[in-house]
């Protein structure tokens, strides 16, 4: 992360907590050094019983207090979880006033010998604090890869490769593909899995191989479920069958695993159907409008939608947009019919001698087929 020497305000946020934490730690090392003097690094954290306003005011006081020693002083608001209390420009709550004061301080420009670093989830790009950081410093977002995004695999590959570079190693493409397959979107496991591979392989002195990765890294069933949801959303039958095959071949209980994938397929269909209903009720014509609609829901409307069975109202707006893109590759009747077939397949799987895998593959073939277009 090469940064100009004059940049002294940083805000790092996003839903990918592991990457946000790692990138922030790297940034702190760049600004404060590997072993910073305690007088040149002031870490501000939220504490139980301490109001959010006091935490923000502590940051402000520290930014305005010059260092007692030569060199740049770093003020770090660490793992802050209350960005959502910023409020609007007209809010008069103590929290909103404190956030506004901090944003105004950043906009005016903080002293050149001070570096302000803030990290945590929930920073809103529409509000004053982020706008001030964008104008006067650097704003970074690291979101968890979303399996409803058709490019989630490439995104995950990028995260894995970036983490490998930070550890001083280069991964062959086949190893990256293997890690995506076993990790799904679980970015929190990347560092641990890479450490195991590096130690086992003797890297970086020795090359990393697929055999080494397979020897020390184990997959998790639910991550393959993420991959299954992504393939169903893309309406890609070959990829759906490939994911099923990978999962069942590695399972010690293939029949039970197939029934588990039937349930995951039901959940994917149900969420896509709910999304189409949400769009129809609100006369929404495209996925981008779904994102805007979710962002614009009041707490009351959101609660009412969820109570009515429309879980999409409670999703992250970006995830809802990706889910809408997947849902529009199917018609409503296709999804509702698939739910009936999947229910029947599951019942047969537990009450007959037909292998659950046969029932699963037959059900997804009926659902996905070769179709791509859906009713608009």
Order of helices and strands: EHEHEHEHEHHHHHHHHHHHH
**Do you know the CATH architecture of the largest domain?**
Up-down Bundle
- Proportion of residues in extended strands: 5-15%
What is the count of DSSP helices, taking H or I runs of 4+ residues? 16
The CATH topology of the largest domain is given as: Zinc Finger, Delta Prime, domain 3
Mean pLDDT: 88
How many distinct domains? 3
Radius of gyration (Å) = 24 Å
Summing up helix and strand content along with how strands pair, one would put the structural category as alpha/beta
Q: Ends: how far apart?
A: 43 Å
- The low-confidence runs, each spanning 5 or more residues with pLDDT under 50, are none
Main β-sheet, spatial strand arrangement: 2-3-4-1-5
| Overall spatial form | flat
Largest sheet: 5 strands, parallel
Helix content: 55-70%
CATH C-level label of the largest domain? Mainly Alpha
* Count of extended strands: 5
Protein traits:
376 residues, alpha/beta, Rossmann fold, Helicase, Ruva Protein, domain 3
Give the helix/strand layout.
Elements: E1 9-13, H1 17-32, E2 41-44, H2 52-64, E3 73-77, H3 94-108, E4 114-119, H4 128-136, E5 138-141, H5 152-166, H6 173-183, H7 190-201, H8 210-216, H9 221-233, H10 237-250, H11 254-281, H12 287-296, H13 299-307, H14 317-327, H15 332-351, H16 356-368
Parallel strand pairs: 1-4, 1-5, 2-3, 3-4
